[in-house]
Design a protein that fits this description.
243 residues; mainly alpha; 11 helices; elongated; MetI-like; ABC transporter permease; transmembrane helix; membrane
Amino acid sequence: MRRRAGLILSALALAALLLGLPRSAPLFHYWFPELDRPLYLQDGFGELLLSHLAIVALSGGAAALLGIGAALWTSRPSGHDFRPPLETLLSIAQSFPPVAVLALTVPLIGFGAAPALAALALYSLLPITHAALAGLASVPEDARETARGIGMSPLQMLWRVELPLAAPVIVAGVRAAMVINIGTAALASTVGARTLGLPIIVGLSGFNTAYVIQGALPVALLAIVVDQAFQWLGDWLSPSQRG
């Protein structure tokens, strides 16, 4: 109940900020009297937030499908031998900064959201895959033995026993990746993607601190809302809460 209340309050604060920013010109004029245009007006903050959230959701969803799928495969007897090279490959991918990935993908697929999606998905794979592997490894062996004892097939055991018990740990990994991606997605505006990073980039290039603040505040609140939403989801999926 407490987490749900915190989530609702954070979501309301984000909504209030988005509604208030277009009407906050007098406030920013007062804070930054030296600026001729202290309020970012090139794009609507609501539109930028939706575009920002879409990039994060699509890249995170793709990473979750690939990461959880890879964890399921390497946790089966047929894939055990592939786990060490997979973890090495993911660690190498994680070592590349998102800016470097953006710089490499732009010449191949052009400007816009596509290079941002590729960079963020690649950057999310390691925490999601590690969380999925840890979650599957945390399933008690006696739960598996009980499932075998009542005649469950390997697929039934996976869907009815292993994944439900591993879900809170997996969700924690997805949560970490999504929160990181919300901040990192702001960099995508450097390659033409429409995100909440646009006011920040324009503000930095034009020495306009007001624009930077106006872009950073929604990013921070969005990260808080998503973090709390995944915390609530992890609690709901916990066997102690559902049982």
